[in-house]
Amino acid sequence: MARYTGPVCRLCRTEQKKLCLKGxxxxxxxxxxxxxxGAPGKDPKARAGKKSEYGxxxxxxxxxxxxxxxxxxxxxxxxxxxxxxxGVTGENLIRLLECRLDNVVYRLHFATSRTQARQIVLHGxxxxxxxxxxxxxxxxxPGDTIEVKESSKKLTVILDALKEVSKSGNMPWVNIDxxxxxxxxxxYPRREEVTDLVDIKEQLVVELYSK
Length: 211
What we know:
Layout: H1 8-15, H2 53-67, H3 72-84, H4 89-98, H5 101-107, H6 114-122, E1 126-128, E2 131-132, E3 145-148, H7 156-162, H8 165-168, E4 174-177, E5 182-185, H9 202-209
C-alpha cells in the first residue's frame, strides 16, 4: 500500500502551515512551525516571491492531500468521485475525506494523528458495526458504530489519545463514549462544521483539476 515515508515535519515547513501530522509533537515547542523555521531547500528565499495562480492552487491541493495523508492518485480519484456527486464539488470532496475510516478514528480521539489512526486501522484494532475493518480508506456512513476491539482496549497509544477528548472536545458529527471506547458517525459533516479546515480553500482544488 503506497504511502509517504519521508520526514513529516518537512511537509509542514513546505506549506508554512501546521498540518497536525505528528499528534502531540505538533502542539509542543518541537514543532518547526512554532519555531518559525523557514521552508526546506538550499535557498527558500529565492522561491518566496509572488506565486502564480497555478502555484496558489497547487499549494492548496497539496495542503489538503497532506492533511489527510493521501498520495496523488488516490486523492485525484476521490476528487473525481466528488465531481460526480450532486452539490458543490469542493464541499463533496471534504465530506468524502471526512468519511474515511482513518479520519473518523482520528476524530473519535482513538489516535492523536491521522497517520497514527491509519496504523491502528491497518493493524486490525478497529471494529465497524462489530466487524474488523483494516482498510484506512473504508467509507464510514451515518449510523455506523466504530469501536476499539476488546483485546486492544489496553493499548497505551489509544488510552493516551483518548485523554484529548476532555481538552479539545469532539466534532458535532461524531458521538463518543470514552469509557466504552466506542463512537458513532451520526451524520455527514457540513463544510462549516469542519472548523480545523476553516482556512483551507477547497474551491482552488476544483479550479486546479478543471484546467
